[in-house]
Design a protein that fits this description.
With 336 residues, the chain is of the alpha/beta class. It is built from 13 helices and 8 strands. Helix 9 links the parallel strand 4 and strand 5. It is a multi-pass membrane protein.
Length: 336
């Protein structure tokens, strides 16, 4: 039975770990439909609230979501009948799956049996396209990658399904000229929806369709010339404000006296050195007085024919009885 599942396993979006803990890590396709119907697929949505919409649910909707089971493809086709387009992509079953060789035929038969209009089905699965065109010629063959126009025409591709960052405005024009429609995903913000709307994108895929459906027209339409003028004006105003702030700051600081840092440091160094010299002199004087020692200078007098030398040869310390006098011995020498 074809069913809907985003992940390859059931752990994130169902309670399989509580119901079938031994099957929690197995591929979802390996469980039969009877086992899948026993799983709850709605409680995780209310718990995680991935799209911030759980609080907007009415009490009846809340109970319905809380008891939601895994949806089969047939149930989806029944719900989507009307003015809706179905983007259908398939995932290959594991190699040991009993229906690996026939899952494509089973899926096509389910779609055709439901009576869903073929022209409202975008077929994205890239394998066995000739078989799909033969069984369902009304399907819109859709490619999920950007290819050369020749390759797209050989594959009878009618639509492209791309991420909104993968296509430029010029490419949108080129695809339109080649009669190729483009669907972009995943568009959730109203401003992005409006931008793509103005760019001529025919359709988008969204997780926020309940919000985008309330946007009847683009939020803000502005010609490119006006948009450019607005930004240039904003830049000029910002530049003028910055220049004005610099001029004002310079005017405020203009009256403050300026000092040369080198002069200040040199003056401080000179004063500090003079003070240190004075302190050292005072220490030397007090040291001589306290020790009772008189220092004599040694002088040398030189002349052309002779020299006299006066030297302090002996220093006699003061005795206890001659405290008021000092004895000195002078040696006088002369010679030619």
């Amino acid at each position: 039975v074809p069913f809907l599942m985003h992940d390859t396993t059931l752990r994130r979006t169902t309670n399989v770990e509580q119901v079938f803990p031994e099957l929690a890590r197995r591929p979802a396709a390996m469980l039969n439909w009877t086992s899948l119907q026993r799983l709850n697929a709605g409680q995780w949505f209310l718990k995680t609230d991935p799209f911030w919409t759980a609080s907007s649910l009415s009490p009846s909707d809340h109970r319905e979501v809380e008891n939601q089971s895994i949806c089969s493809l047939a149930e989806l086709l029944e719900l989507a009948k009307g003015n809706a387009t179905l983007l259908l992509n398939l995932r290959d079953p594991p190699h040991d799956h009993p229906y690996r060789g026939s899952f494509l035929n089973i899926t096509l038969e389910a779609v055709l049996r439901s009576g869903f209009p073929q022209h409202q089905v975008m077929w994205l699965f890239n394998r066995q396209r000739p078989l799909v065109r033969k069984m369902a010629p009304g399907f819109q063959q859709t490619s999920g990658s950007k290819e050369a126009i020749a390759s797209l025409r050989r594959g009878h591709i009618q639509k492209l399904n791309l991420h909104y960052t993968q296509v430029s405005h010029q490419e949108l024009r080129d695809y339109a000229s080649w009669n190729l429609s483009v669907n972009l995903y995943t568009v959730n913000a109203p401003w992005l929806f409006s931008l793509l709307w103005c760019a001529g994108v025919p359709s988008v895929t969204s997780d926020n369709s309940h919000t985008l459906s309330r946007v009847p027209s683009p939020l803000w339409i502005m010609p490119p010339d006006e948009y450019c003028l607005m930004w240039v004006t904003a830049d000029l105003i910002s530049f003028s404000l910055i220049i004005g702030i610099f001029v004002l700051q310079k005017w405020r600081l203009g009256g403050i006296r300026s000092y040369n840092p080198e002069q200040i440091m040199l003056s401080a160094a000179v004063r500090r050195t003079s003070r240190d010299v004075s302190i050292m002199k005072e220490k030397l004087i007090f040291s001589e007085i306290s020790d009772g020692v008189e220092v004599s200078d040694e002088l040398s007098v030189c002349s052309d024919s002779s020299y006299d030398t006066y030297a302090n040869s002996t220093v006699t310390p003061m005795g206890p009885q001659s405290a008021g006098s000092r004895a000195k011995t002078f040696t006088e020498q002369g010679g030619h």
